[in-house]
Model the fold of this input.
Amino acid sequence: MAAKKTRKFKTEVQQLLHLIIHSLYSNKEIFVRELISNASDAIDKARFMEQTEPALFADDTDYHIRLSADSEEKTFTISDNGIGMTFDEVNDNIGTIAQSGTAAFMEALEKSKKETNLSPELIGQFGVGFYSSFIVADKVRLDTRAAGAETGVRWESDGKGSYTVQEIEKENRGTSITLYLKEAEEGDQDFTEDYTLQNIVKKHSDFVTYPVIMNLEKSEPIPENEIVKDSEGKPIGETYRKVRKDETLNSMKAIWAKAKDDVTDEEHEEFYKHISHNWDKPMEIIHKKFEGVTEYDVLMYLPEKAPMDLFRPERKNGMQLYCKRVFIMDDCKELLPEYLGFVQGVVDAPDLNLNVSREILQEDRLVRNIRKNLVKQIFSLLEGMEKEKYEKFYGEFGQSLKAGIPTDYENKEKLASLLRYKTTKSGDKYVSLDEYIGNMKEDQKEIYYLTGESLTSLINSPLLESLKAKDYEVVLMVDPIDEWVTQSLPEYKEKKLKSAEKGDLDLDKVDDEKKNEFSALLSFLKGKLEARVKDVVVSNRLKDSVSCLSGDDYGMSAYMEKIMKASGQSTPDQKRVMEVNVNHPVMEKIKGLFETDTTNPVLTDYSDLLYDIAVISEGGKLDNPARFSALLGDLMAKAI
Ligand code: ADP
Done:
């Protein structure tokens, strides 16, 4: 047997432990729930593996979780006969941070450095799991033996920076965790007391699908024939005696299988915490029994807040699949499209085969049918949501919905109707595309939008001058993902979506005579700026500004180019078109200069300035800002 080894916690674990202990001291009892959840997950895994490797589990399939406590020794122990852990797994899972959400949390924390005033609500968005033991314990011992393993592993720590691991003999499969409880503080519950533990389990873990058993002291009547009586037949001494008996503390009722009205809010909250590993309340609940050719139960929760790891590729999908109340799998990506992965819930489909694999699930007609119905349910819930609530939801998960537009062709129109944007006219309010259409001017044919980094720069963009002059509303899009939305949504309700910076806006035209007057100057400018622009044209976008940059109908927007560059992707060097406002006095003057002397060197400076102004006005970066300020300074000196 290998010797005992001492290892250091990863730094982030230490930080996390510190945080958990300090932010949860008023909520100590939750360690019971966290450990029961882990045990229940471990049994889920065992049951799943048993389907394919029954021999590994043949010794013990009476799955359960056991609690025990010793008030003399001040210990609390939880044991399960789940999957257990190997030596490597103990090292990988305990002592590092397994859950991606937790790692994301630590990162966020690192950035914000607000450790001191962390509220339980914030930390509540994450599963703290095993580490919650250290809220109440000053030493924790975990013994475990993996299914099929010969020996067990012991992990021990006082939560102060290091832990030890060693191989041990362990008789049975599964995990047993003993907490050496800290000295109780005033007002603390006694976690070695039967009654206290009974209540905690009832409160937080009632629906756990495996029995949570505890050997409890009961008082039972002494059988008639064993009672010692006096000559008159009166009992001498007690008629009741204390005995210890195993009792199941939880009702194990799968709440999704109950009638909708029979589930209380508290039950939902606790169950949501159990499956989501979050501690906040669900924002919305969808609880439904589907009946028809096949029957199945669905219970889904929309979270109140978006998790910090929402867009991490390794994030798990929130759906679990059950068959006749037996857990089949979590992270069931087949049940909901990826962009709805934030929904947490359970589907229990009795007609599924228990041995179903992920590969089969993808092909399964029933599963596809379920998925369709789930999506439908979610959409109709969102559509029916009261405005204020929906906007709150949208603030958290709007980006997820947007991600659905390029990926879920079937529901594109529905998703588009759920989009909300600020516009040039909306002020602080959000507007739906339907509302936008409702507000369109009589002669307006298209839905105008502009993408970019910030609302302020968009709303002041010269690209919108003509549109504003016509009193047309423009949708302002500031999420990078909006670029993908607009690419996959060429039209909505038969109205084209038209970028204010691309192609011909089809507004009032500049008359041909004026165009002709300027054509020589424009080709001169084009020659000067050849390296930077594709063309120089007369603008019908501008009203007040002198120049701007625009793109082709099918070209990349300036914002898209910026996003691509920021993410390190090489973009084809696409040149844009410089538009000039021929009604602007500056253009008249430049034209005058040009017509007097086409070789005047100041014309080169002015063409550079026109281009730089266009770049600056869309929030872009100048290639040579020093030259710009020199030119401008020069100009000011002359003008003043
Ligand atoms: P989480 O449960 O949120 O992933 P924990 O820190 O609670 O985080 O647990 C880390 C990992 O340790 C779990 O994902 C699981 O793989 C393993 N683990 C914890 N408890 C048990 C247990 N009772 N039996 C088997 N594995 C466990």
About this structure: Residues 38-39, 42, 80, 82-85, 93-94, 98-99, 127, 129-131, 175, 277 surround adenosine-5'-diphosphate (CB under 6 Å). The chain has 21 helices and 22 strands.
